[in-house]
Amino acid sequence: MIKKYTSGSPINTGAMIKEFQGEDISRFPLVSRFDGGKFRFAQSLGKNAIVYGLGEAPRGINKRGWVYESFCSDDPFHTETKSSLYAAHNFIIISGNESLGIFIDFPARIRWDIGYTSSDTCSVTVDGEDFDIYLIYGDTPLSVVKEFRAAIGQSYIPPFWAFGYQQSRWSYPDARAVDGVIEGYDNAQIPLDCVYLDIDYMESYKDFTVDENKFPNFADYVAEKRAQGIHLIPIIDAGVKKEDGYEVYDEGRKKGYFCKNADGTDFEGGVWPGIVGFPDFLRSEVRDWFGSKYRLLTNMGIDGFWNDMNEPAIFYSAKGLDAAIDKASSLKGENLDLGQFFDLKDAFAGISNSPDDYSSIYHLIDGKLVCHDRVHNIYGASMTKAAGEFFEREFGKEKILMFSRASYIGAHRTSGIWFGDNHSWWSHILLNLKMLPSANMCGFLYCGADLGGFNGNASADLVLRFLALGVFTPLMRNHSALGTRPQECYSFENTGDFRDIVQVRYRLIPYLYRLFRKASEENDMIFRPLSFDYPTDPIARECETQLMLGDEAMIAPVYEQNVGGRYVYLPEPMTFYALSGEKVRSEKLDKGVHYVPVALNEVPLFVKEGKQIPVCKPAMRTSLLNTEEIEFL
Amino acid sequence: MIKKYTSGSPINTGAMIKEFQGEDISRFPLVSRFDGGKFRFAQSLGKNAIVYGLGEAPRGINKRGWVYESFCSDDPFHTETKSSLYAAHNFIIISGNESLGIFIDFPARIRWDIGYTSSDTCSVTVDGEDFDIYLIYGDTPLSVVKEFRAAIGQSYIPPFWAFGYQQSRWSYPDARAVDGVIEGYDNAQIPLDCVYLDIDYMESYKDFTVDENKFPNFADYVAEKRAQGIHLIPIIDAGVKKEDGYEVYDEGRKKGYFCKNADGTDFEGGVWPGIVGFPDFLRSEVRDWFGSKYRLLTNMGIDGFWNDMNEPAIFYSAKGLDAAIDKASSLKGENLDLGQFFDLKDAFAGISNSPDDYSSIYHLIDGKLVCHDRVHNIYGASMTKAAGEFFEREFGKEKILMFSRASYIGAHRTSGIWFGDNHSWWSHILLNLKMLPSANMCGFLYCGADLGGFNGNASADLVLRFLALGVFTPLMRNHSALGTRPQECYSFENTGDFRDIVQVRYRLIPYLYRLFRKASEENDMIFRPLSFDYPTDPIARECETQLMLGDEAMIAPVYEQNVGGRYVYLPEPMTFYALSGEKVRSEKLDKGVHYVPVALNEVPLFVKEGKQIPVCKPAMRTSLLNTEEIEFL
Q1: A133 CB-side CA count, 13 A
Q2: CA of B457: which chain A residue's CA is closest?
Q3: Which of A18, A81, A235, B595 has the least CB density, counted as fewest CB within 10 Å?
Q4: How far, in Å, CA of A84 to CA of A102, rounded?
Q5: Cis upstream peptide for B424 (omega within 30°)
Q6: Hey, is the C-beta of A47 within 8 angstroms of any chain B C-beta?
Q7: Interface predicted TM-score of the whole assembly (ipTM), two decimals
Q8: Rounded to two decimals, what is the model's pTM?
Q9: How far is CA B406 from the centre of its chain?
Q10: pLDDT in tens, B123-144
Q11: Under DSSP, is residue B178 helix (H, G, I), strand (E, B) or coil?
């Protein structure tokens, strides 16, 4: 059962597809109050209650014991003391004797104190007075998820080839480099379906342009790669370079499509291309306009995109930069005291993604200028909606791969997400794992993290272990940053180990794809916490290093360095499979605690008694898979 | 057997107390070469070889799979991709069929590529041509440790009361705040022995001063606290405030005791007090002078110190700050491109602890100016030596508590260390655990991390779990930073849980103190990796979440949030004790893998068959412990 409570005049975020009769917020059944323009409510937490949700967010599957904030943030340091990542997924489930789902449909900040200040209380602060809150009542957390998911609409399904292995880097600078990647994989006999084009494929970082010096005759090049079975996936950034004569910018400016300053002039911020205008994606005519620009690339044969920098990330504004430079200039020749020194240092450190800049941006909603602060969390989702609406109109469903960095619930209907600019940290294997069921609860099925880690240098064993989790994530992409150690599988020693891992992915694609479609069609989850399936088993309830996969299996990746195995808990008897290329090692295990050996070239998988997992032969491309010739684990 | 190889004219670091006849480096038996002023050598690593060592350093007990650097660094973000912490402990053990210890006695940078570039090779680069390398051959890693430890001399033993529980914060601003802490603990009936005074007790951050407004009649106040059984532990920073009329500075300047610029004038850097002079601790007359200044505080009854900022940390130099401000000024009114913007941002971000500043500092060694770059890693250790030499001369051994942030092997003879400015991250419980045996190998026995985490906000359960590890660390100190959530045990709900944990520490002090003394006297380790004791047990060999404690026991703290227990591996049958205040819950467990329940107010401890752990009754102070009345677990 879903109950809706409305306060004020909520902005339509597009999250819900079902309509509910809203009751007035005065009838909201939880302890609550309005207070200084904010709405606060609280719910007590039983000693053993688990709080699920928040989709792409830091920390655990059980969100208890921390304060989270819904605020799409471009912050690459995904450490434990952060409160936000790139998304705002305002859905939680408080699961005690019964399960209560709470979805707050509100595009500005929300603070979730989930047993941090007081371990037995979940206190939520909505930073505004115009919102809808949905309470979803159910017997189990899964029933709450399913009812919620039915209300927000079916999840995006990408093309089949999007389940292949994908290689990315910031950046493969030109066609030759891309060719080198494909060659590297082909020579090492490691399967590959996609190569990504990060920002450097563009002409001066201008959206919907291709630098002819780097990629001459791009359409031909795309076709040539397609003939090799490879899809090229270019990045699209939110900001449009301010440059006279650049068609997209000129059009956007002429039509008044960019976000404004308070005085109605165009807001200008500095991002990769230098100064840009930010399209006001919240307007349907702007979405139509921007979405149709993707045609410039689809016309060249491109059939996949990733949308980036759409929180939006703002490196600086002229105003913010001037203020910092002025502060520095005014201190020239002064004998600074420590306070002045730190002030100055902070002025420069805080110049990017600054609250002042966000507060200076205005959107045109129903003819009125609305401050960005009020709608921040749907900006990125609206960009992706622009593209998604265009793709469905133009090509139909399941034709174009697309995923986004920033997101809000609702975007799950037209795109996937990736979990942003993580690090080559062993701890980020588990962070990736923990976000999978949380994202699924919020409708995001096509998702994954940068395998091997984006920032920082990776060791070969880290990449292998990360990939062994990635074998199961719908988006299986290895991506790394400028200046880091090459992270392509063939760049490391013992490439056979990498082949063994990636081949396992290809063997499982028929199973994973079917599981994915089913989860989308039935509003179900691909990955579930063990506590969903074994709610009375105390060890299963608190396990956050393993996940249930579909109805058949359990995954438990190795997430520590220099180990030859890991602890695993079996809530029921299962068969442990160590999959490596076409090799299969298996052992029946009883319910209970085990330590299982897992070599660097093995993918661990646990299959329930009486269940079978179909596998096919590996191939170098998804298009070469024989999905008819199946055997069973 | 220890073999010494000498290259050039090494600087005497004071690390070794035994003299060895050095052979010429040309006879060095490992594959090696000189190359551009550096010395490089390599040793192959067997598939299952473990590399131990590096003392206070990032990542695991087994250092394989990463690149480390010996370079004392003031960097509070102890993430996995860092290469250094605050110390330079140049000792590793390559443990395969035999064990090879390598100690590089060299005070400048060393790069340790331990199976990162190539998983089967340990490649070491010494950034200079004047060094000693010691090779220590042994049958087992422990025999290598013991031989090395005998060569570097007996470890520092603090006073007995230093095993009590200690509370710190940056900062308790005045006597009233300190009184509040003691009252808070006493009211909650949680034992306490020490309260720390961070930088704000001083007058304008001037070493060896006490702000009379905050602590009137300090000597009386210290005596009053001592009468309550509480020791006050003030911080001493490396830099001496530049202020005419401040005796320490005036003296230091007049006598030429501060580090120099290349032109022989005093180097000036900005730290907490603003501009400071850095005493040239490498000179014995400067150590004598600075060491004797501690008398200003010992005369007031102080008997414990912590030395900080002695890497040295330098927030800025006039030169570095001017350069950044000049860069900013020159860009005023310019339309910056992205390169210029990031350059400018980086100029301010990189102003602290900058390589340029370190290269501008000179020390007087044997009458010649030597660039700081050549001796960086013994600066902090030399500061601590200054104090330690004074204390031993003045008071004898075991009278004064002292530990330091920066360190080098050799400093272990006169002081302890703490592991620096960590974070309130769950992952830092394990980082703390992993550094314990590594520090022990290098002679540092009195050590510990900031329990609960220094930077960032802590939840109550994190502090409890962190403390439950801290129960076993010689230094058991809770410390947190300015602006973070209060982290004193009484600041949280359910203070009884905290009492239960801290009381367990007091019950174990007779055992822990005896274990500590014995380890110091016998050049032994308090904490050992399981692989030391069970080298042929594959699960024990790779276990990095448990430690052997003395010859009797094993520890295995809980290090995840929202769990009621943890996996533990028993390499032999043991009794599992859950200790909570005076309550003891126990269960005999077989060899193998178990999941043991551990409540938030319990300390897990595993005792071998046939072994006993003595415990006394808890008390509110170490001075109130009845160490005669013992029972046995």
Answers
A1: 25
A2: A81
A3: A18
A4: 18
A5: no
A6: no
A7: 0.97
A8: 0.97
A9: 7
A10: 999 999 999 999 999 999 999 9
A11: helix
